[in-house]
Structure prediction request, 202 residues.
Amino acid sequence: MSEERLERFSRIFKALSNPHRLRIILELAQCTPGSGMFTTTVDQVENCQQEFAKNLGLAPSTISHHFKELRLAGLLRIKRDGKNVLVSVNQEAIESMRNLF
Amino acid sequence: MSEERLERFSRIFKALSNPHRLRIILELAQCTPGSGMFTTTVDQVENCQQEFAKNLGLAPSTISHHFKELRLAGLLRIKRDGKNVLVSVNQEAIESMRNLF
DNA sequence: TTCATCATTCGACATGTTTCGAAGTATAGT
DNA sequence: ACTATACTTCGAAACATGTCGAATGATGAA
Prediction:
């Protein structure tokens, strides 16, 4: 196992090691089957980060921080769409993590 | 997903989030196929923690700490055997983690 | 253009993690 | 009993993380 590969995986695990982030990615994974884009302006999940902030009892800036962590770990793709953001769970990263052991 | 279950998984991910611990568990997983006990006094892996200390360039006390972290996360079972320790990777924990997504 | 809304960045603080060396415990061999 | 070996615990230092509120940026609507 190369040092680089090891670092990449530990970054993924670190991203998932926080209960709030784990909750976030699990919820988003449910909303984005087949790695499709998940729009924040549909159904009950309108205002994506605001909703997470309310549900998790955290400040919006903290949610933004957690989103960034998940993105840097390669687990989340984030795109601006007007005022909101579009997010998609990177299923490849999830798969590679599952296949590690 | 219950709060308790979420905490349990994030503890597993946290244990794997450190490159040194990830390296340790991956090596041990190789040595203990079928969740059998892995004795520290066989083959090239004699003096388990001492070896890891040397190979990873860490102090023995640090390795001991990392072993403990892995044990508390439920990933490793540790038993004393004379001067050494017997360790076994908890395959159930690994499996539950793989099946989370 | 001005305003309201959603998201991000920044600075600060509290808390947690990683690491070491020193001291302690347990055990096997002499 | 003494010594050597393997591991653990403890205290401390350095560093990283989680969180907030305030300030900033970006976008769509009036």
